[in-house]
């Protein structure tokens, strides 16, 4: 069911008001409340104030977020009638290594838990993205007509003459075998049912299919593929390899976006999968191995039992054993059977080259999870040293920040892809050392640790917290990037990730090609800078500055618990964070997620003041001292230096009363007025007049446009320090300039804004008072030699006739 009525009513109301001539009402509201950001991106909202350039950056998101309903509450919880569909798979797959092809058959049991009657079921055929005629391939652009990367041309040539699309050979009812009509559109397939599927009913659909394996995977795909090593051994990682039921949701009905780049929305279910491969291959997959006695030796099974109790990785397949497997010619095939409960997808890796290690990890709720890694010798020496330890570390940190890892295994595989990719219980990671002499670089070490943490972290988002990446890529990638940075920083002190947040978002946030975070995933200009880095930076600011760690962590855990094994939307995250933290954060979501403004605040000046006692004698002495400290004019100063003979010195009679009394002299009349004023005051007013506090007026300018808290570090003349965070609401009446008054009983020596780079401020040079000299180092350079084409081509010029003839 699509809950669109409230948003439609709002659109109709907006149109009516516009027709009445109230042009400040935005007319471009979306049918869905979640996508009202289209108007917000332009800074146009139903409430608009244009006088003196004022904009209310603190108004509520009521006109943008969807109306709460029985499925999703206003506090961010699943509603009392929340539902989601279920799809269970029984599958048999054969990996034909000789022809580099997948052949499969499956029975999908689809259960309709929605309140709607369904007449058809949509499937995703994401493998079709690799067809040369797919929407993904046909809509690629190449704007630069003079330059092209080698990788780009290679990919274009690879796809030109190859068709890696999926061939559907049969679609039928599993019971009885009656063929079902179906239509394929790009990366989607609609299967029409004989009888409408009523709420609560199930249908079992049999599908046979096959397709070639994408090769070379690292060139074309970051999610699956094949590589062949120099000795002929193959390394497969297979994902998106079978027809998958598309998501049917309470907020949008069927999610039928074509697979252009951004990943998928799926349903949970149980998987029973039989994978037939050459008998020299080792297979790792989503789920638990069901037939270890058929595919593993007695020694390997004993090693697995020992690994479950070990506190460091134990080798299951030794390097020598892997070398023996990859050198051996297969005699036949072997079938590996895996079962996974309550997962939303399935993937597997297969190779004769795999070294395999594992260790047990004890969750906070008392279960043992097997942390594992499979990798070829080409991944050494970093894989055996770091991969499984990074898996276990991720289970520990994410389990503490959200909820304990719910599955029995977590596997990291060295796969032929470009970086990393996640699937339930198994992730693919690309990094390997470039050198073959047993050494590795710092980048390779921390690159592997970082990508393993990030991809295993995806087990929580989106594998359990079932976000819809094709609509909002940031809701899993951004949250996961934030959490993986926390986990990396807990790996060791001074980890390189410590420099990541939130400062590394500045370059993107100040760039001309920035778009709002809430833009649909495939439309993003810069997915990494936007959905990953900017969102991670936003959450860092929210945790460290806006809310504080304790309240933020409580709210994040609440979101994770509420939505595990369910499908949240952005509003559910926003509302949960607000409800549990007790903070109104609409200003934060609006600025960071719906606009392209950035943080750039300046401490433009500081004014120091003291209370005027109004006592004429006291104030006269202060004024006289200030006047004495003031530098004279240049003319007066030079006259003194010239030792002028002033006229009043030559004619003393010219001096009178005013030469004896300066302009600060206090009269009896002034004293009497002061005494009369004091007599009319109450005691508390008299105390205020004698208060000796120092008043500091701190003047701030918002140059970037994004309202932000102001974290201040204050140093005093007596050597003490103070840390103070001014909430973002200080900008609520004026989003351009504000002045903050600090009353202190001691002198301030200096003030620094965002000393610890905590708010993604684009320019720190104007964040300190008094101003400090900029620090730099000058690199001396010589002029490059001017080009000499004749010399570079090895040519010489003949001597002129004049020179030759003398």
TrEMBL record:
InterPro entries: Peptidase_M1_aminopeptidases, Peptidase_M1_dom, Peptidase_M4/M1_CTD_sf. Keywords: Signal. Pfam families: Peptidase_M1 (PF01433). Residues 400-592 form the Peptidase M1 membrane alanine aminopeptidase domain. Residues 773-806 are annotated as: Disordered. One of its GO terms (biological process) is peptide catabolic process. Residues 1-29 form the signal peptide. One of its GO terms (cellular component) is extracellular space. CDD domains: M1_APN_like. It comes from the Bacteria. Transmembrane segments: none annotated. One of its GO terms (molecular function) is peptide binding. This is Peptidase M1-like protein.
